[in-house]
Write a structure and sequence with these properties.
There is one protein chain. The chain is of the alpha/beta class. The protein has three domains: 66 residues, Arc Repressor Mutant, subunit A; 88 residues, Arc Repressor Mutant, subunit A, CATH 1.10.10; 99 residues, Trna Endonuclease, Chain: A, domain 1. It is built from ten helices and twelve strands. A five-stranded mixed beta sheet has the order 6-7-8-10-12, sandwiched between helices. Strands 3-5-4 form a three-stranded antiparallel beta sheet, with helices on both faces. The N and C termini lie far apart (53 Å).
Length: 280
């Protein structure tokens, strides 16, 4: 039996394990054990956790042993542990209903929280499902959540219909409800595997700030992100964001629904080097 077979046998018996523990138990050099683990991971024969244990090392486990990762949940941070327990209990959480600190924390629970997007009444809604439930169960739960929401909305609309409203104000309110810029921004983060560290909602669905970790070939890079739903982004908008990012000593990423003015494009290229603009 070679070292790789012994490693697989040990993990099969003990469940998710640290490389140092594996090396000690099979009495092999830790360097070679790490190399074997990397090879087995590349072959899809084992998985690696996002959660870190002890001195910051991930766990290695076999497909089918995912449920055993719960045994290591005490290694989560305080905020992550709270939202972990909430998701474990509820099975599905609606992102927009979470408090900001939980919205940030749940994005780091990559082993336990899986995001998915639902189109509802013209808006994109982000939900999180407990990692051990099926997609069918998650969809059923979401239908229940949105169904209850729809009933409440019908009652509200019925009450409003009993009272005359100014047409202009009603149109403005409808426009606000149809806007879901926050959902678009979060979907951009999810699609690009960007981890939100901090979140500050300045104006709901129109002006937000984030501190995020962006994956790259050399590891995660921390960015200051400004998200604005303006139709036209001018050089003044870019300048204020660039300065704010400088005070935090972070590179800047501007997310917007609109387009840059011609002057803003020139300034972005010449003056605000290192700053990025992305449409969402």
């Amino acid at each position: 039996m070679d070292d790789k077979d012994r490693i697989l046998g040990f993990i099969r018996m003990r469940g998710p394990s640290l490389p140092t523990t594996i090396a000690k138990e099979i009495q092999a050099d830790s360097f070679f054990v790490s190399a074997h683990l990397s090879e087995l991971k590349g072959q899809g024969r084992i998985k690696i956790s996002h959660i870190k244990v002890g001195g910051g090392s991930p766990l290695y486990y076999l497909p089918g042993q995912e449920s055993q990762l719960q045994n290591f949940s005490e290694n989560l941070g305080e905020k992550e542990r709270k939202v972990y327990e909430l998701l474990k209990e509820k099975k599905v959480l609606r992102d927009s209903k979470l408090v900001p600190v939980f919205r940030a924390a749940i994005r780091s629970l990559k082993d336990f929280a899986f995001p998915f997007t639902v189109n509802y009444r013209g808006n994109k809604e982000i939900f999180w499902k407990w990692y051990l439930i099926s997609n069918e169960e998650a969809e059923k739960t979401v239908r229940g959540i949105l169904g209850m929401k729809a009933e409440k909305k019908k009652e509200t609309e019925k009450k409003k219909a009993e009272k005359p409203e100014d047409t202009k104000e009603a149109a403005q309110e409808a426009a606000k409800k149809s806007s879901n810029f926050y959902g678009d921004v979060n979907e951009y983060f999810i699609q690009n595997k960007i981890n939100v560290i901090e979140e500050n909602i300045i104006r709901k669905n129109s002006d937000m700030e984030f501190i995020v970790d962006v994956p790259s070939a050399v590891g995660s890079l921390r960015y200051f992100v400004k998200a604005k739903s303006k139709k036209r982004v001018n050089d003044g908008d870019l300048s204020s964001v660039f300065i704010r990012a400088q005070t935090k000593r972070l590179p800047a990423l501007f997310l917007g629904k609109g387009k840059l003015t011609k002057k803003a494009e020139e300034m972005l290229e010449k003056e605000f080097k290192g700053m990025q603009f992305k449409g969402v």
